[in-house]
Amino acid sequence: MIELQPESVVFVRAFLATTVGILVLFVGKALNQRVGALREYNIPEPVTGGLLVAVGLWALYLATGYRVIFELHIRDVLLVYFFTTIGLNARFSDLKAGGRPFVVLCLLVSLFLVLQDALAVALAKVVGWSPSMGLLAGSISLLGGHGTAIAWAPVIAARDGIENALEIGVLCATVGLVLASVTGGPLARFLVKRHRLEGPVNDEPEVGVHYGDSQPPIDYFSFLYSIFAIHVCGIVGILVQQLMVGRGVNLPLFVPCLMAGVLFTNVLHHFAPRVPWPSRTPALALIAEVSLGVFLAMSLMSMELSSLASLAGPLFFVLAMQVILAVAFALFVAFPALGGSYDAAVICAGLMGFGLGATPTAMANMTAVTQRHGASHVAFLVVPLVGAFFLDLLNTVAIRFFLTLN
């Protein structure tokens, strides 16, 4: 389960890596239960534990020279589990309520992309970088995340001769993930307190339970039905993805699985009303909380913070300005445009999540907010749809536009 490899690398196999991820989630939950400020500012539990372990592994590297690398393919399965539960919880009545927020959020993301890249290019000129290198500290790495950074880094390297474009992009994406995790919750708290917003009293969150609530009863069959439904949607999602790939359309697996969950939840009861199909049940909420928690814990604990030691002053300055832009945009543009409601505050936490990090980070931010202040079915429908379907497309258009200008 553990391999010592050349160049002072400790490689942790998938099973043990997942076990460590579970332990990290335990640590995060224990710290959040004991430190009231972490709950008050809506810091996600896996972020608390994951960052602590990442710092510990960095200290180990400084003391011994050994780097710990985790095998993470089980983490990707947990991501599919989580987004499938989101689809299973979605109802067409929410789609009707979420129609306007969905359109508004798409427009907001389009505007934010332009502002994020414009700021990155402008700051690049200030610190003496090429505009293309500035884009690596813009939507390529921040809104796009690690996958987009890895995909575009060779293009930037070939275009402008930036040999370490990949390292810069991955570094920016890593820092962005941390910044997204620690800013979204506090921003939503500020909006909730400032505008005296309240979530629904009786509705349970899609993920987990409210802080302070007793754990709801979960029986054998409700849990088994939930696991079975997730796997049925997973099978359909895999088949759809294979068909799409055969036609030249490459979507992440969690996207068709999410849509399969939406379809089954809203259609099946018309044709098979006696089938006990799970939707917004305590068992499904528990599975969602565990799968997202372990996924994010594994993502954060596996960050190689040793690479941050080489973070240059100009790069830190650019990323700090990007955080200020994201916070100002959420407060003064997105929140009013979304209606200034409780749902708008939760969506803003999600916007900070994928605006600086990734869609799973957005979901974790919103989970932390709703567990404390109340459910937001609209936010949990709108944010993953924008993140899954439109984010990468809009980002690609913005990146190509700014590359043609420089």
Explain how this protein is built:
This protein has 406 residues and is an all-alpha fold. The protein has one domain: Na+/H+ antiporter like fold (Up-down Bundle). The chain contains 16 helices and three strands. The protein has a three-stranded mixed β-sheet with strand order 1-2-3. Helix 1 packs across helix 12. The longest helix has 31 residues. The protein is globular. The chain starts with a strand and ends with a helix. The model has no long low-confidence stretch (mean pLDDT 85).
Notable traits:
about 75% helix, mainly alpha, Na+/H+ antiporter like fold, single chain, about 400 residues, 3-stranded mixed sheet
Q: What's the short story on this structure?
A:
By secondary structure, the chain is mainly α.
Enumerate how many helices there are, as a single number: 16
Order of helices and strands: EEHHHEHHHHHHHHHHHHH
Biggest sheet, spatial arrangement of strands: 1-2-3
Gross morphology: globular
Beta-sheet strand percentage?
Answer: under 5%
Strand-helix topology:
Elements (H helix, E strand, L loop, with lengths): L1 E4 L3 E4 L1 H21 L1 H5 L4 H20 L2 E4 L2 H17 L2 H6 L1 H29 L3 H6 L8 H16 L4 H31 L24 H27 L7 H18 L10 H20 L11 H25 L4 H15 L2 H15 L3 H29 L1
Parallel strand pairs: 2-3
Antiparallel strand pairs: 1-2
Helix pairs in contact: 1-3, 1-12, 3-12, 4-10, 4-11, 4-12, 6-13, 6-16, 8-9, 9-13, 9-14, 9-15, 10-11, 10-12, 12-15, 13-14, 14-15, 14-16, 15-16
